[in-house]
Amino acid sequence: MRNGNGRTRLLPTDPGFPVALYARVSTTQQDPDVQLRELRSLAAARGWTVMGEYVDTGISGASTSRPELSRLLADAHKGCFAGILVWRLDRLGRSLRHLVTVVEDLLARGIDVISATEPHMDSTTPTGRLLRNIFASVAEYEREMIRERVVAGLRKAKASGKHIGRPKAVLNPLQIEQLRGEGLSWREIARQMNLPRSTVHRYRGTHMPNRACKPH
Prior knowledge:
Layout: E1 18-25, H1 33-45, E2 49-57, H2 67-77, E3 83-86, H3 96-108, E4 112-115, H4 130-159, H5 173-181, H6 186-192, H7 197-207
Parallel strand pairs: 1-2, 1-3, 3-4
Helix pairs in contact: 3-4, 6-7
């Protein structure tokens, strides 16, 4: 079977299925080995190969800075492993929205997500595969809500008379002719005046004299 990167990948039922372990504890007084021991035991019981361990220590769930989670996701995108084991699913996300985004992205890339303490949160099992549909549906719902908020905002702005879209280009004919006199090309003029090239060329066609060579 091939994953989202087009590479051949092992199935969870194959010996040596490559996985990564992720653990997080909120304080430096907590021992991440409590989580890691259980994750190592689960991987060994299923005959999976642990490709790496990623541990964030002394970092709360709400923290936006989680170096090891960032490294885990970067390696996941590189295809360094085919599954991620966590003690609980909430270890992966700093909020419900972030958790949905992370898990939906991993599943879409063909990377399984397995929670050691939540059997229903194991995408390698028939029951756990419902996780894919649940997270995909929630993610789509979130995207639809964002689209609706954007559309509502645009309608409100339009109703209040605000201009929607790109500001209208303002031409300065004197400046254009001055720059042409200095030898600048039409492309250079457009860039210097921060105007679309099409606008400058349109001015050229309607205002500048035709300098085409005439036969003698």
